[in-house]
Amino acid sequence: MQRKALQQGQATLVVSLPAKWVHKHDIVKGQSLEVVEEDNTIVISTESKEKEIKKEFNIDEHVGEFNKYILNYFYQKGYDEVKINFSNPEQRQKIIGSISLGRFDIISREKKSITIKSLMPTDITKFDTFLRKAFLIIIDMGEKIIEAIKNKEYVYLTEIKENEKINNKYCDLCHRILNKKMKIDSENIIFLYCLVRDLEKVGDSYRELCNNWDKSVSKDILTIFKSVHDYFRSYYELYYEFSKEKTDYLFNRRKILLEECKKRLEKANKSETLVLFYFMEIIEGVFALKAPLFLMKL
Fold first, then answer.
1. Which of 38, 82, 154, 219 falls between 20 and 30 A from 28, CA-CA?
2. Same domain for 283 and 163?
3. Residue 262 is assigned to a structural domain of this protein
4. Does the model's pTM come out above 0.70?
5. For the segment 222-271, what is each residue's pLDDT rounded down to a tens digit?
6. Which of 117, 146, 163 is the last residue of a domain?
7. Helix and strand numbers, DSSP H then E, in the chain
8. 167: Cβ contacts below 8 Å, ≥ 6 apart
9. What's the pLDDT tens digit per position in 117-136?
């Protein structure tokens, strides 16, 4: 179906609505319609309210015990309401304990089921905002780690690592949006999903640095980390401002950084070995992020 764009006034173009669609939905003159821009597509609908996605989940058919990961997958998948059925009364407390994580609220309790619901609306227009925040949280973690080690404030690392939970929150939101609104970017949806997943893994590596960096780690290790963290920042800059120079840096810098870490491993103590391992995990994690980015750019 094609429609011609008609001129109305000096700066406005209008397109007529199909008569069959107008009659089917009882559209009348002056009625407000929802218009959503999606790349090179415009979606017109009669209402802006998203249809709730409901799920019924039987624990006995899928897992031995309910855990927080299952709840998180419900959230990422985009479910708004989930009825969880169980036969073992001991599962009840496990479900209730997982709900306290804040993804859902309990709206119904029966003898052999609990129904949960996400009462906070998901703003599908905020994907780009949430993704950028996930990047910036990791950048902030790295800068704070450098500052804490530089000032020998190792106790502060425990507080810094809590930011990884915030990073998880934004990554989960991004996955939820992608699952709820598959038309955000239909061509690149799978690549965006992989990018968010791998970005969350990089955040995990920063958390583990906080768990394993102690006083026995030599000062020269911090110098290496500054370079590793700059490598992550370079990817962030490449993602938001793609260029040949930034691309060359991403490909060439990886090998140099890995060789530097491996060389330092030859004389590393136990704590330094763990820290260097997570350096290399971050390097490889950043390099893995190239795939979804280039697949979207090609």
1. 38
2. yes
3. yes
4. yes
5. 999 999 999 999 999 999 999 999 999 999 999 999 999 999 999 999 99
6. 117
7. 12, 8
8. 134, 137, 138, 141, 200, 203
9. 987 778 878 899 999 999 99
